[in-house]
Amino acid sequence: MARQLSVIMPYCNEYPQIYFTVCGIRCELEQSDIDWEIITIANKSSDQGFEKMQRIQTDRIKALRYDEKLSHWCAKNHGIQNSTGETLFFIDGHCILSKNALVNQYKCFIEHAEELHGTLHLPILYMNEKGGRELEYKLQANITEKKGIDNPKNTAHNLHYSFTRYKHTKPFHRVSCMSTCGMMISRKLLVDEMGLWPGAMGIYGGGENFINFTIAVMDYHINVFHRPNSVHHYAEKRGYAQPLTAKIKTPEGWIPMGEMQIGTIVSTPNKKKAAVIEIYPQGIKDVYKVILEDGSTTACSQDHLWQVYSGHVLTLAQLQNNLKAGIVDYIPVFTNKDLVFKQLKTIDYIGEAECQCILIDHPDHLYITDDDIVTHNSWNYDDWVRNRIIAAYMYGGEEWAHPFALNIRGRKEVLEGIYQEVVKTCKTHQDHIEAQVKLSPQEWVEREAEEGRFQGVYK
User: Fold this and answer.
1) Could you tell me if residue 416 is inside a domain?
2) Has residue 393 been placed in a domain?
């Protein structure tokens, strides 16, 4: 029997916060007249979160688990496929809802369904050591003429978003795009009409581009609910970690990973500097020693990222599989102010250790660790590129996605290969969406500008 509301909550190493988030939502819904359920999805979570969710399972709370890392979007799909609610609400395991926000949002969503004509989102209160402020998204668009032999359609197409201050309007107001954390949407729209998130999407980015801009070209609306109803967003635990004892090179010398702070300046392999902009504590994790051909070593978790000679970004687990298969990988080392590549020889398990990962403000997301080995922070450019191309293909088809793919930073032959793979993998899903498209992306951007909702860059 279908319920009225399904709360979908993916998480990865978010205990104990996931427990408090679920219990808070349960207490609020139990006091309402809504027929509800909560679906939690442990996405290769290695802490106690899944076991705690199992202990509080009822006929209304489901604890699902994936041992192989899913993308955030596929984890949400898995939750949806195991839910029955006619209305879906999404929240991450590291977030907290303000008092009565979910019940108030649901009532507004049902009562104003015709006027909303799409989604209803909670404002996001991003929390840090200085407090927080309420934010929403603003649209960024770039539709320009860029002629050249590598760009057969002579255009550069891109839609994206950035943060802007929340604009207080009761009971809600329309925006061009918004976060999926705190999103309420009908099952009919997301499942039947949009066909869920594309299953080919990887871990990094693209899922919100797909939701926002596919909704747009299908001529639905994106709306933000009024305060004080909001979602408090705390830093998630990404998992791509090094032990706290790993050394990080800075202009002032070597600093242990455990002493990194937001704002710490680190050295980068392009002979420049970058600031640490996020820190993600990971708790106790299995740690492996990475040994290069000259004896240089460092240590990291299995899901830590490495940019190899080919330009691809691989996890340590993928490097381990390559070693077993006899595939040779070369790791960058910053030696005498030059970047050289040295063969990866062995990867040895050395035990458990407390770990964390960092995010730095650097276009290549690379920093220098023990023995001048160059490693990657919490980002995977290959995955990000593929996901953005998937999203562009879904909402804009080949005419939009191909120029977009060819104007991303990277080698043209690699980008073309990723694009062709996306078209082959996602064509059936894109055909389903294209049959329901009412506007082209450019027509939609022009309308947003005319109606005063566009705040980005449109050329």
Assistant:
1) no
2) no
